[in-house]
């Protein structure tokens, strides 16, 4: 496996270089087509504020004891109390690229909002260690989004600036029992996407023939909550597996085809399956001229984090058109592990997640991707302390 991965990376290194802008770091980043035509960035989550109460019923909190009075076995039990998988969710690092590629215009936009909410893990829902100290501590909840516009860049830009805000507002407004935390997120996403879509019309943001995909991920200490509308995609690298977190909403997907034709629409094969021969996806934000066949209704998935998780990848179809999930996962895992092992000797100070985003972009471009390419890579391993040089 190691030699195969090395050969893949050799092929990556031999591809033509892209002219990428210099990197920068900030607490939050929203990149739209008005900012630049080709951009990369990386960042690190640090701290958070505000408070909130818990939803999931708590287990009994272990009583603190004097360790000097414990036997070896008792001490091991005492120090191995359950913790949230992501602990306080503060060691997350990320990187992204967003390049125009071979297109004449840049219509992609990305949003990275570390700490867009601050809550206790058990309040967010799906905590793997309810009742533990970490579950009741205020922790940041992170937001990542990729938006692939079509017909223009207005909708993608609007989503990058607004989507995380409306989702947070709807999540705060929705009240459910602790056991129904998943329904709370489903409602927040569904109403949030609908609200963003309605605001496009109310504020005359874009013509009715402009739209955008939207794939977003919420990262809490114990959960990865993903919402997708269109054919951008999110995958999770876990151990040796690459797990799809979203399923592309294409017009020829069986359930989508039945929905479209059941409503009197048509799917025509014109350079791929397209709604009325026009749009190559079956759901999107905007595109009001194709209602009711194109809808802004997201599909939501939940994935509990584990210690085996390597990284989360969100990308527009500029990547997925030329690479499979498995290829992306293989390159990401190898690069992450290699960079982590040698990070103490690196001088360029590029985070492993940024290196992965850069390499995947180069591969996609080298394979003649004809679209804009936008990629977010979130490193799910806690940041290792660099060894002091002797």
From TrEMBL:
GO terms for molecular function: metal ion binding; protein serine/threonine phosphatase activity. GO terms for biological process: regulation of intracellular signal transduction. The keyword Magnesium applies. Residues 38-53 have a biased composition (Polar residues). InterPro entries: PP2C, PP2C_BS, PPM-type-like_dom_sf, PPM-type_phosphatase-like_dom. The keyword Protease does not apply. SUPFAM superfamilies: PP2C-like. Its cofactor is Mn(2+); Mg(2+). Pfam families: PP2C. It is an enzyme of class 3 (hydrolase). CDD domains: PP2Cc (cd00143). Residues 1-53 are annotated as: Disordered. Keywords: Hydrolase, Magnesium, Manganese, Metal-binding, Protein phosphatase. Residues 22-33 have a biased composition (Low complexity). Its EC number is 3.1.3.16. Belongs to the PP2C family. This is protein-serine/threonine phosphatase.
């Amino acid at each position: 496996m190691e030699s195969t991965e090395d050969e893949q990376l050799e092929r990556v290194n031999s591809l033509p270089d892209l002219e990428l802008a210099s990197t920068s770091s900030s607490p939050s980043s929203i990149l739209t087509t008005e900012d630049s035509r080709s951009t990369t960035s990386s960042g690190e989550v640090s701290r958070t504020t505000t408070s909130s109460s818990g939803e999931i019923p708590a287990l009994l909190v272990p009583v603190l004891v004097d360790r000097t009075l414990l036997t070896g076995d008792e001490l091991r039990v005492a120090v191995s109390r359950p913790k949230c998988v992501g602990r306080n969710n503060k060691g997350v690092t990320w990187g992204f690229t967003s390049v125009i590629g071979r297109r004449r215009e840049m219509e992609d936009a990305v949003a990275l909002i570390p700490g867009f909410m601050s809550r206790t893990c058990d309040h967010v829902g799906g905590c793997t260690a309810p009742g533990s100290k970490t579950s009741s501590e205020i922790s940041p909840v992170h937001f990542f989004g990729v938006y692939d516009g079509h017909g223009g860049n207005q909708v993608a830009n609007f989503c990058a600036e607004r989507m995380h805000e409306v989702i947070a507002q709807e999540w705060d407004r929705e009240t459910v029992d602790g056991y129904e935390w998943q329904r709370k997120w489903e409602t927040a996403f569904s109403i949030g996407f609908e609200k963003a879509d309605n605001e496009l019309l109310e504020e005359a943001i874009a013509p009715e023939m402009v739209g955008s995909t939207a794939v977003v991920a919420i990262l809490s200490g114990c959960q990865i909550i993903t919402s997708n509308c269109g054919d951008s995609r999110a995958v999770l690298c876990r151990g040796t597996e690459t797990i799809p977190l979203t399923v592309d909403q294409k017009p020829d997907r069986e359930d989508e085809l039945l929905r479209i034709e059941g409503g009197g629409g048509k799917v025509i094969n014109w350079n791929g399956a397209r709604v009325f021969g026009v749009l190559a996806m079956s759901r999107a934000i905007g595109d009001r001229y194709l209602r009711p066949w194109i809808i802004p209704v997201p599909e939501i998935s939940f994935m509990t984090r584990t210690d085996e998780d390597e990284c989360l990848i969100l990308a527009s179809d500029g990547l997925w058109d030329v690479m499979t999930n498995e290829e992306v996962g293989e390159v990401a895992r190898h690069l992450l592990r290699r960079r982590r092992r040698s990070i103490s000797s690196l001088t360029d100070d590029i985070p492993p997640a940024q290196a992965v985003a850069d390499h995947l972009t180069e591969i996609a471009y080298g394979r003649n991707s004809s679209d804009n390419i936008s990629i977010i890579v979130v490193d799910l391993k806690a940041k290792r302390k660099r060894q002091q040089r002797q």
